[in-house]
């Protein structure tokens, strides 16, 4: 049977001095899947994403991306893998002194140094179409609303056609309607571009739209794993408490 795993995490342990943040985590993410990562503040959700893209070294265990063990790669090989991964981090800001067009051109030129201006123009136009913001092409970030900035940030992360997208709190700070729009955009892009995604979120509106499966980090472990409705309807006192208090509900 074909191996559908794009990310394989085996017995991952990450410590900061004597503080164990991730303790022996094992997790597979399959091609085309949208995994949501929950957990209270400080439980290692962002650390997990940073380990996956090789931005943070870990103490033991393995992370394989497309069957390649990232801790055994040279910087050059790791950069090749990273070209295939897009990330939208918490508070990821657009470059304020650049127009929307220049913001989108930036990652393209960096990742594909030999790309022609014509290809760049087509890609920028098509990607803006995907996020329904063609008219913003010559605007400066200061002229955009919070929701529009998120859309452009999303466009910038997907313009290089990554196979895997990592989102860290993609809807933080947005009102419920914009949260819904951004979450629907995430799922539509994922379907159109056949991407796999891992999203850290506290936001149930977002999770309900995008999640195929969810995990819950607690006490440095994956404490719960399953379909989102299994977690939200669980009779487990901790989960009941989390989902009734921690998350903004519509
Ligand atoms: N570079 C670092 N050096 C030392 N400690 C760190 C570092 N990065 C993260 N930590 C610690 O690791 C723990 C997990 O941090 P992380 O940012 O992954 O939490 P989180 O679950 O994403 O939280 P939140 O929901 O608040 O964003 C925290 O205690 C944090 O202080």
From TrEMBL:
It holds the Pfam family ABC_tran. It comes from the Bacteria. One of its GO terms (molecular function) is ATP binding. Gene3D superfamilies: P-loop containing nucleotide triphosphate hydrolases. PROSITE patterns: ABC_TRANSPORTER_1, ABC_TRANSPORTER_2. This is ABC transporter ATP-binding protein. The lineage of its organism: Bacteria, Pseudomonadati, Ignavibacteriota, Ignavibacteria, Ignavibacteriales. InterPro entries: AAA+_ATPase, ABC_transporter-like_ATP-bd, ABC_transporter-like_CS, P-loop_NTPase. Keywords: ATP-binding, Nucleotide-binding, Transport. Residues 7-244 form the ABC transporter domain.
């Amino acid at each position: 049977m074909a191996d559908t795993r794009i990310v394989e995490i085996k017995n991952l342990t990450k410590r900061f001095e004597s503080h164990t943040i991730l303790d022996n985590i094992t997790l597979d993410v399959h091609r085309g899947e949208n995994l949501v990562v929950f957990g209270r503040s400080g439980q290692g959700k962002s650390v997990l994403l940073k380990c996956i893209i090789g931005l943070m070294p870990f103490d033991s265990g393995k992370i394989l991306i497309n069957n390649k063990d990232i801790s055994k790669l040279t910087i050059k090989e790791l950069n090749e893998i990273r070209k295939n991964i897009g990330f939208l981090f918490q508070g990821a800001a657009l470059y304020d002194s650049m127009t929307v067009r220049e913001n989108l051109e930036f990652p393209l030129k960096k990742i594909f140094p030999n790309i022609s201006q014509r290809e760049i123009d087509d890609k920028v136009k098509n990607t803006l179409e995907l996020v329904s913001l063609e008219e913003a092409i010559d605007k400066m970030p200061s002229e955009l609303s919070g929701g529009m900035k998120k859309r452009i940030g999303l466009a910038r992360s997907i313009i290089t056609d990554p196979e895997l997208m990592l989102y860290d709190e993609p809807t933080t700070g947005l009102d419920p309607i914009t949260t819904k729009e951004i979450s629907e955009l995430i799922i539509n892009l994922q379907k159109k571009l056949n991407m796999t995604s891992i999203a850290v979120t506290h936001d149930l509106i977002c999770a309900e739209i995008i999640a195929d499966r969810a995990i819950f980090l607690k006490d440095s472990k994956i404490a719960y794993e399953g379909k989102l409705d299994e977690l939200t309807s669980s009779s487990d006192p901790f989960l009941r408490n989390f989902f009734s208090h921690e998350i903004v509900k519509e």
